[in-house]
Design a protein that fits this description.
Four copies of one chain form a homotetramer. With 215 residues, chain A is of the alpha+beta class. Chain A is built from five helices and eight strands. In chain A, strands 3-2-1-4-8-7-6-5 form an eight-stranded mixed sheet, with helices on both faces. The longest helix of chain A is centred in the C-terminal third of the chain and has 25 residues.
């Protein structure tokens, strides 16, 4: 570590450990294979600092010591020889737009398939499931969740902009899909973000398998 | 703990540990994702007291120390800062109607799909499988199990009443489904309730995949 | 233990431990849910004695201490308060007819589905897969394995007889299915029997999912 | 060990441990069932020496001590009582043709199914997925990966020759399938090879399940 304010330093170690535990669990479920996906948590709000999984690392073996500390420009404050993901900009955008305390991004088989299957509709409507009640602020299974689908891109600045506009147009959305890429969700803290990912992954698998059974 | 009678106190610790172990195992199988589902066991019959998983807690990390003790009105006897699930009333209803020693409730992908697919038939008939013999009192695979499907609702008092009527009309049922919500099963004790859940989840997945293959 | 010959006594402890490890691993894969299935290994040939999983026990928590020692009539030589499965007779029949050193019986979703789907053909032909080479004596993927399907029954004496006749008519079979019930396989020892189960379960899942994709 | 040069001896122990860890993880995912599949890593380039998983061993219990050291003719330099797989020649061919540092070979349900379904097209085209960026040298999801399919054979000398020709015709391929047999991939080192296997397995499952959903 080079210059972590004392406020965030004390928060960093347990946060990094919790983030690594979630990464290993999601990898075991096949949601972060091949070093895909990334995870972040806010460690300090002012100045904004995130604990973030490094790029190109096996999430099934992620340790707290490998977790990076980055600032609000996505620059590293810790010195690991590792580097942050190009998608750091997307995490920062979501943190700012949603006042999120944590952002998680998974690549599951089912989120990949459904992000493609419903791409022309620009999103997926999920309605009538009890599991929706696990999403922050939802009180009944009669809730209708619109999960927007955004075109994939390698231009992170442009993609962050598109995401920001999408979030603005969908103020109640708890996540979004990048087409043939993966799922982003977030929460007030890491536990809530994990809960949201588990719920959205569950619902996407349920919708996908329902198509198989009903067709 | 505030006021646990000595009788139940001695039973509570091992019961809470067993309940937490089952919760973590079911979470690993994807049956309790996103803090969904809940688990209870009778600790004392007179007065009626249940060990119960708290609301809103990650079942993949549930510890014995987090397990609540509740009375027959669903009020907490232990003081954790946690709170019991709204579905506590349903657990109490089943304990009373079936003289159950444990009640388990799972949200799996397959139970969600089949609870919806067969909703208009008000239940699922499962017949001819050897696995049925694992249900208490069943001696042959020629048994026919009727798994009732009940409309989902957020009104727990009304839902408890509907469940009670359904159990009364189906005295031999070992479980029931709430539509697009999940599976309830129970047993004389926690081990038997776990066995019943595993069997019903297995049979629902078998029926669901059979539809995929045969269609 | 009451009267184990010294020959088998020394072999019993490591065998029981190995058998319990396999049981827990198969339960994790969903092949022994709800206390279903059973596992046995020959501990002594003369007199014939088997280490065998007890009836009605959660295979996900099976310990070496729970494993029973039984004689060639299926009577218990150890005194646990547990009892052997009714299917002990089937294990003994296979041990005698095939000179098997171990017999394993699983209840998987895929073996249940395919045992039903192909029941009118009285078996499943599996041909052209490299995985077949893992079956004892098979040298090439061009091998054709015939996996017989036998009607399920609760009459164990009659079922043992049918199995014996089926094995006699299919001297090269490495396993068989009981309709809507499960898979039996065996091997010269526990390791080989485990290998055979893994291979047959893999091939049955491959055939089942191929039906889903090709339909 | 009999005659390991000191250079490779120091590299062998950690490499063997890493290889065994990957084997156990892939076995847990069902990619190496029934002793199928094999794994190798280059320990020394001059002379060429590989750490290699032994033939016929349960990959779910593979230990570092069981890993073999072999030379460039596929002969064992270590003395274990175990023997190298017949497919050692294929590993050596890939190491030479691709300057690979590690070669991994898996038998998954999905790679088996797709290797058969697309066999008449001699390969599978995978395009437009973000996951492709995890393959070495790929910078965008717009990449098109051609995964060649080669006829299965038990003649390893001939098969090694066919693989070499296929690699020569497809200089950018990151893996290939043997029909109804399995997937080969490789990398500069063991970590990269593991990443490539995870990505290709993910993409094959995604393609397979997309067929189920879209049909």
């Amino acid at each position: 570590m080079t210059s972590i304010p004392s406020q965030s330093e004390s928060a960093f170690a347990p946060t990094a450990a919790a983030l690594a535990t979630i990464a290993r669990g999601f990898h075991a479920r096949g949601w972060l294979l091949g070093t895909s996906g990334n995870l972040s948590t806010v460690v300090s709000r002012d100045p904004l600092q995130l604990a973030m999984s490094p790029s190109g690392v096996d999430k099934g073996e992620l340790t707290a010591a490998q977790v990076l500390l980055i600032d609000e420009q996505g620059q590293m404050l810790s010195d690991h020889g590792a580097k942050p993901s190009d998608e750091t900009l997307l995490h920062l955008q979501i943190v700012k737009d949603r006042q999120a305390g944590a952002v998680l991004h998974t690549h599951s088989v089912w989120n990949t398939i459904l992000s493609d299957l419903y791409a022309t509709q620009r999103g997926i409507s999920i309605e009538g499931y009890e599991m929706l009640k696990g999403l922050d602020g939802v009180r009944t299974h009669e809730h209708r969740e619109w999960l927007p689908i955004i075109d994939n891109s390698q231009d992170m600045t442009s993609l962050a902009q598109t995401i920001s506009e999408t979030l603005s147009r969908n103020p109640n959305a708890h996540g979004f899909l990048l087409q043939r890429h993966g799922l982003y969700s977030w929460g007030l803290d890491l536990q809530q973000a994990k809960r949201h990912i588990e719920i959205l992954e569950f619902l996407l698998e349920t919708l996908g398998r329902t198509l198989e059974v009903k067709r």
